[in-house]
Amino acid sequence: MNPLVVSKVLGHIHPISRAVFDIRRIFEDLGFAVAVGPELETEHYNFDVLNFPKDHPARDMQDSFWLRSQNATNADFTQTNAEGGIQRESASSQRPSVRSLLRTHTSPVQVRYMEEKLKAGIMPPYKIVVPGKAFRNEATDATHEAQFFHVECLYVDKNVSMAQLKGTLIYFFKKFFGEDVEVRFRVSFFPFTEPSAEIDMKLKGKWLEMGGSGLVHPNVLKAAGVPEGYGGFAFGVGIDRLVMLKYGIPDIRMFYNGDLRLVNQF
Amino acid sequence: MLISYKWLQSYFEDKLPEPEALSERIAFSLAEVEGIEKNADDVVLDIKVLPDRACYALSHRGVAGELSAILNLPLKKVEQPTIKVGKVRSVEFEIADGNLCRRHIGRVIEGITVGKSPDWLRERLESVGQRSINNIVDATNFVTLDMGQPLHAFDADKVKGKVTVRPGRTGETVVTLDGKQIPVDSSIVVIADEDGPLDIAGIKGGKKAELDYNTKAILLSVANFDPVSIRRASVKTGIKTDASKRFENNLTPERARVGMDEITSVIAALCPEAVVGGETDVYPKKAGQKQVSFSPDDIRRMVGISVSDTDISDCLGRLGIHTEKQGKEFVAQVPYERTDLSIPADIAEEVGRIIGYDKIPAVVPSKGKEKVEIPKSFYYEWKIREFLVSAGFSEVMTSSFAPLGDVEIEKPLAEDKRFARQNLQSNFEKALKLNVSNAPLFGSEDVRIFEIGKVFPVKGEHTGLILGLKHAKKQKRNESYVLEGLIQDIEKSLGIEIETKVKTSINYGVMFEANLDGAIQKLSESQKWDISIPVVQSKKFIAFSLYPLIVRDIALFVSLDTTPESVAKIIKENAGDLVVRGPELFDEFSKDGKKSLAFRLVFQSFDRTLSDEEVNKIMEKVYVALTIHGWQIR
User: Which segments constitute the Aminoacyl-transfer RNA synthetases class-II family profile domain (chain A) (predicted)?
Assistant: First the structure.
C-alpha cells in the first residue's frame, strides 16, 4: 500500500453495510447466496410480476417515486379505450409495463434472479438473500425514511413450507440479535405471497413488527417461468430497523447524512 | 373499521372473550387491531381489515363470522326477514353496461315518515362513532355496518322516469350531498333518471334526489359495481367514501340481495304505516359459485403442519366453506362473499390461520450441496471497502436524491429532492464539510471518508465510489496526491483500471469520484468470500449533541519530572461537564530544562449553542488551577 496513506487507525464500516456483511454470512451458512439488482426498476419487475393488481394503490403516484423522463411510453396504458368505456385490466393479461421507478423493495430481484437461472438452464432449488436500497414516497420522521435498506429472502424448491420460513427467520434473528429472541406469525396480506404472515420478533421482552413473509404466490413463480411442482417462501425485512434495534439508534435519518458521529461508533 | 363489542356479542349466545383477549385472537388470525377504546358500557375495536378480506369481513357480521370460526363458537340463528309487498308506483330500472354495474336492485316504499331514529338505532350508530341523521339514512348506514353492503335511498318523488346506471357524459355534473359540484365523464359511472345523474354510482349520493323531512316515498337502490372502475372514478373525482372502499374490494353481487331484504325490513319496522313495493332486480350475469380443488397433502406441505383430512375440512367448515372428497382431491365450495379465495394456497392460509400460525413448527431448511455464489459487483465493492477501511477511511451514506440531475422524479418529496442523484459528489460534499467541522470530536483533524452507491446518469445506473480527504492543518502533504495514490493502490491490488474519475477540490478538502462498473465487469468471478472488516466497536449507540462545538488548546511549561497525566487530571477536574473530548495531549517537548505540554479540549452542550464567553470563563478557571500548581501557561 502507498506509504502516504497508511493509517494507524482503521476506518469504520457504516452500520448498515455491517448488517449487510453479517446477513450475507448468516445466510451463507444456510446455503443462501447474495443476489443484487437495479435500484432503478421497471413497473414490470417492481409490481406486475409480483402479482400486484394493475390498480393496486401501491402503484399510485403518491406512494412511489415514478420517474418523469422515461414516462412518455406510458400513453399505451391510459385508462379509457377509444369508445370511452373503461378498459379493464388484469395483471396477467398485460403487456409488460414500461414505466420506471425507484424500486419500492428488493423483491423484484426474486423474479430477475429466477429468470436468469432458468435462462441458463438451472432449475431450483434457488436460495437467495437480496440486500439493497429501496425507496418509498412517504413523509420522513424518526422511523420513516424515503430511502432505506431492505433485505429480501427467497427459497424456491419442492416442498417448501411455512415451517421452513419460520425456522429460517428464527435462525436469522438469533444469529443477528442473539439467542434470546422469539418469532411469531400473524395473518397478513401481500400480493406476492399466499399464505402471508406478518413477522413479529420478541426482543428483550417486547414484541416488534419486523416485516412481511409468506409462501411465494404461484403467479410470481409463473411470471418467472418456474415450472409446476415448485413452491417457495419469501420474506422482506428493513435493514435499517434491524440496525436501529440492535444498537439502539433512535433515528433512521442518521444513516443517510454522512455523519461520522454515527459511523465512528461502530 | 370500528367494530362495537356489544354489537358483535349480539351475534352469539355464548359470551365472547373479554375485549383484550378477543383482540389478541383477531390480531393473529384475522387482522391487526389498531385500537381498543372504551365507550360508555361498550368497547370499540378498530380492526384494520386488509384488502383481501375486505370483500367479506368489513362489517359486524363479517367479523362475527370470523370469530365464530376462530373461536369455534356457533353463531346465533338469524331470522330471515319476511317482507309484505303492497301496491306502489312503478319505476323502471336499467343497467347500460353489465360490466360496470353488475347488479342493481330497486324498490319503492311509499308512505314513510322521515324523522328521528329510535334509541336502539341511534345507539348502534353512535357506538361506532357515526352521527345519527334521520331514521331512513340511519337505517341504510346501520345495515351497511352490520352486513357490509352499501345502500342508498333516494326521494322517489324527485326521481323522474326510468332509473339507469350508465357511464357519465362529458358536460354532466353531480352536486354531491355535501354540496360539491363534481363534473363527470365516461370514466365515471352514474345512477341517472331522465333528467340526468342522481349520484356518482357507488361513491357518493347526490343532492338532486336527497331525502328531507317532507319525503313521503323513497327509492331504495342496492347495487354492485366493478371494483376497478369504482377505484378509478374515486381517484379521478378525488372522493373516497366508505361505500367506494367497499366496492373497490370486490363485493359479490349476491350480497345485494341480502342487503335489500334487510334494509327493507328495517325500514318497514321503523315506518309501520309504509307501503313496501315489489323489487326490480337487474342482474345481467349471475355470479357463479366458485369451487377450489385442492389436495390435503398440498395443504399440509405448504403450512408445514401435520393435520388430518378431517381437521382440514373442519377448519374450512367453520368458515362456511364446505368440502367434498373427490378421489384424492377435496373440492371446496366457496361462499359467494369470499371473492378472495381461488387457489389452493388461499385454502392453505385459511387452514393455517384457523389452526393457528402459532402451531406451525420451526424447521431450518437443509443447507444443500450447491456452492453459494457471490455476485461479482457485491464482492468487489466489499473488496474496496475492506481496502479503504484499512487505509483509515470510514464509510458514509448520503441521500440518493438531489436538487439537480438527469433522472427526474414525478412527485418528489421536496424541491431539493427532485432528481435521483447523478453523482455522489453533491451530497457527499456536505458530508465532508459536516465531518470536517466535527473533526475535533474524533480526535484528529484528518477526515477520511468514502461512499459506494448507485448513481443515475441519463441512462440506467452505475455504482459510484467517492473518496473525501481533508488533512489536519499541520500536514503538508497534498490531499489530491494522496487520493490519487490511493486510487492507484486500489487499481493495483484488484488488477483493474478505473475509467471515469473526477477530482474536485473544495474548501473542506478534496473529493475523488469514480465509476466502478466498467472496471468490475472485467474482473473474474470471485470464488470465495475472503473479506474481513474490523470488529464492531460498540454494542450500543451513544447519543451525540447536535449543537456546535468549541475547541480550546492549552499549552504550558512544567518541570521535567511532571507527567502529562497529572496535568491532564487537574484540567479535567476544573473543566466541568461540557467537555465532550479531552484533555488530549497533542504536543510535548523539552527545552531549557523545562517541559512544554499542549492539550486540547472540546466543549459541547446537549441542549444549547455554547458561547465563547461561557467557554472563556471555564478556561479561566482551568488556568487558575494550573497556575496554583506552579505551572506556567504559555
Answer: 23-265
Q: Which of B56, B338, B357, B489 to probe the A interface (max A CBs under 10 A)? A: B357
Nearest to A163 among B363, B372, B389 (CB): B363
Q: Sheet containing B501-506: give its strands across.
A: B394-395, B447-455, B462-470, B509-515, B501-506
Cβ–Cβ under 8 Å, residues A1 and B391: yes
CA nearest A125: which of A231, A12, A265?
A231
Chain B nearest C-alpha distance from A126 (Å): 10
B219 and B245 inside one domain: yes
Residue B125: inside a domain, yes or no? yes
Predicted pLDDT at B498: 85
Overall residue count recorded for chain A in this entry:
266
Residues (pLDDT < 50) of chain B are none
The verdict on a CB contact (< 8 Å) between A168 and B352 is: no
Q: Are residues B147 and B236 in the same domain?
A: yes
CA distances from B294 to A127, A166, B298, B324, B543 (A): 27, 24, 7, 11, 56
Regarding whether B296 and B278 lie in a shared domain, the answer is no
Structural domain boundaries enclosing B600:
550-633
Three-state secondary structure call for residue B567? helix
CA atoms within 13 A on the CB side of B182: 31
Strand order of the β-sheet with B407-408 is B401-402, B419-420, B407-408
Is the pTM higher than 0.95? no
Give the bridge partners for B196, in sequence order. B193
pLDDT of chain A along its 266 residues, tens only?
Answer: 444 444 568 999 999 999 999 999 999 999 999 999 999 999 999 999 999 988 777 777 778 999 986 543 333 333 333 333 333 343 434 445 678 999 999 999 999 999 999 999 999 999 999 999 999 998 889 989 999 999 999 999 999 999 999 999 999 999 999 999 999 999 999 999 999 999 999 999 999 999 999 999 999 999 999 999 999 999 999 999 999 999 999 999 999 999 999 999 99
Strands of the sheet with A206-216, listed across from one edge: A33-34, A126-135, A147-157, A231-238, A206-216, A193-203, A181-187
Q: What is the pLDDT of residue A247?
A: 96
Whether residues B99 and B240 fall in one domain: yes
Domain residue ranges of chain A, discontinuous segments joined by +? 13-263
| CB proximity A78 to B under 8 Å | no
CB B273 within 8 A of CB B327: no
- Domain count for chain B: 5
Q: Does residue A130 contact residue A34 with C-beta atoms inside 8 Å?
A: yes
Query: Do B410 and A163 count as a contact with CB atoms less than 8 A apart?
Result: no
**ipTM of this model?**
0.90
Contact B360 A140 (CB under 8 A): no
- B122 and B263 fall within a common domain: yes
One-letter amino acid of A130: V
CA gap A12, A14 in Å, rounded:
6
Non-local (6+) Cβ contacts of A210 within 8 A are A173, A199, A200, A201, A237, A241
CATH, residue B608: 3.30.70.380
Rounded to whole angstroms, the Cα distance separating A247 from A177 reads 10
- Say if B87 falls within a structural domain: no
Class of domain A13-263: alpha beta
Whether residue B137 is found in the same domain as residue B249: yes
- Is residue B79 in a domain? no
State phi, psi for A196 to the nearest 5 degrees: -120, 150
Question: For residue range B426-459, what is the model confidence (pLDDT) as tens digits?
Answer: 999 999 999 998 988 887 768 999 999 999 998 8
* B188 lies within 8 A of chain A by CB: no
Q: Cβ–Cβ contacts within 10 Å for residue A12, how many?
A: 25
